Amino acid sequence: MSFTPSPPPFSGSQLGCIRGGRVVFAGLSFQVTPGDALVLLGPNGSGKSSLLRVMAGLLKPATGRLAWGEQAVAEEPELHAARTHYVGHHDAVKPVLSVAENLRFWARLHEPHAGRAAESVETALDRFGLAHLKDIPGKMLSAGQKRRTNLARLLAAPSPLWLLDEPTTALDKRSIAELERVFAEHRGQGGMVVLSTHMDVALPGAKTLHLDEFSVEEEDET
Ligand SMILES: Nc1ncnc2c1ncn2[C@@H]1O[C@H](COP(=O)(O)OP(=O)(O)OP(=O)(O)O)[C@@H](O)[C@H]1O
């Protein structure tokens, strides 16, 4: 599968973010084009999660503009949500639904065709090593299994733009290697990956963005 037509560049210009009355970053610009990966780096509190939430349309930037091609993201929030997978720190796995039911739920949100959705769910279960857990309710999963279920929606419901906050947290080595292959395939199909991490993740040719370069020194009031 590849994204047809090829998605336009996703970009941000002069973005600023204020949280809890503090400027987290200012003057930040980026661009990702089909096949790109962008890795957000920086110490704790530098704003990686905040930027991902801004990119996902979940947090309004204090300044600046996000665009999908020429189109302002703020003008088409529903379309932006439909073309984006945001996987944050909090697992979105519903505790009473089984692994397969969780994936079916996400698949049907993005794919109205039941047959295609079911096929994607099978692929996602298989690739993320979840087939043997498919009937287990979300509440009975380990941290790593929950994380894999959460990430499996990337394949259960295809979307061109993936925004992932420390996606390797709680994953074992084998799952990280599989996730790296999934990233490579997504990029090969014209998809885009933006992720934050404190670990090495194999993303050949990825761009990097150091959030601490956009921090704003606060005046000392004493
Ligand atoms: N819900 C919130 N309300 C107010 N301030 C917040 C909120 N969430 C985060 N912040 C603040 O925003 C700043 C950036 O936090 P953010 O979580 O984006 O950083 P991060 O680079 O992702 O950190 P980490 O590496 O620890 O995950 C921090 O100063 C933090 O205290």
Automatic annotation (TrEMBL):
Domain of life the protein comes from: Bacteria
Gene3D superfamilies given in the database record: P-loop containing nucleotide triphosphate hydrolases
Single GO biological process annotation from the record: cytochrome complex assembly
Pfam families: ABC_tran
Any one Gene Ontology molecular-function term assigned to this protein's record: transmembrane transporter activity
Keyword entries, A-Z: ATP-binding, Cytochrome c-type biogenesis, Membrane, Nucleotide-binding, Translocase, Transport
Domain ABC transporter residue range list: 10-222
InterPro entries named among the record's database cross-references: AAA+_ATPase (IPR003593), ABC_transporter-like_ATP-bd (IPR003439), ABC_transptr_haem_export_CcmA (IPR005895), P-loop_NTPase (IPR027417)
Matches recorded under PANTHER family: ABC TRANSPORTER I FAMILY MEMBER 1
Name listed for the protein in its UniProt record: Heme ABC transporter ATP-binding protein CcmA
Source organism per UniProt: Magnetospirillum moscoviense
